[in-house]
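Thread: "does anyone have the structure for this chain?"

Original post by V.I.:
We have the sequence but no experimental structure in hand. Need at least a predicted one for the grant figures.
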Amino acid sequence: MDRRWLPLNALRAFEAAGRHRSFTAAAQSLMVTQSAVSRHVIGLEDLLGIQLFERKPHQLALTDAGRRILPVVTRSFDRIDEVLEEVRADKGTPRRALKVLLPHTFAHQLAIPMLKDFRAEHPDIGIDLDSRTVAGPMERSADVAVVYSEPKVTDRVLDLLWMVRLTILCHPDVAATARPGDLAGFLGAHDLLHVRLDERPKTYLWDMFARSAGCPDLKTDRGLVFDTAQMAAGYAMAGEGLALVDPLLFREEIAAGRLVRPVDLMIDDGYGYYLATDPDDLGETAVSIFRSWLIRRFSAPPFTTGGRSAPDGNAP
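Reply from O.Q.:
Generated one for you, tokens below.
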């Protein structure tokens, strides 16, 4: 559609009606008459040649087409509003800043050296970093987001940074209790440290590991449950328990000997770290630079070679 004829007022009326599921509430939010909102929506439907709402008594519901269009329009208006507010706050000062969302453990274990290097190369691009839970509306509000996810099809552009592989990490004193040929005994003698994973049972990862290790009868419903891999690894570093985590996230701790790998066994949990970007933002200079830089960063060792250090301690 030629931008000269882009129906901005009609899109604004449609977006408000879609959010409120009411022409009356939409009119109140826009401070116009209900008839004006209705007229704009009808005009948009005529332009597109398809109905956007199902109009029933005391009820307004989006059609399939309406549900497809609404989030795009909302996101676009949100972005325009955000940029206008930034320009107004900066009083016209040029500004290039990216809002970046990172998972908690990723942010705390990798973000500092990563962002330090990026800023050294691109000092003119600011970073607004958020390491809260990355999902849903929060992910949508960011310019770029790293998400921990299974492979899936979404309306975002997903670039795989690396596929996760899990192994046991523990304190050196705990690893020293391992006996050759008695993996089941070693696992049974220590607390299992679980990390919550989506809606899956808390034992999901340890059950997978036990099957791969040839210990299908291992009692996995015990130990502690943590929100993040960083917390599980931190507990293990304190001298208790076995953390089942990706060693790429704890390379410094392994190199310093604070965590060791007592078992030469790794499993794929089917998850990976993906860079999520809105396709509408790919042409934006700052987004494009950061996306390309991050992909190159994770296309180098150790992320492309498995990156898993040799096992430490006594392997059962």
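V.I.: this helps a lot. Confidence is low (pLDDT under 50) at residues 134-138, 307-316.
O.Q.: and The first helix runs from residue 8 to 20.
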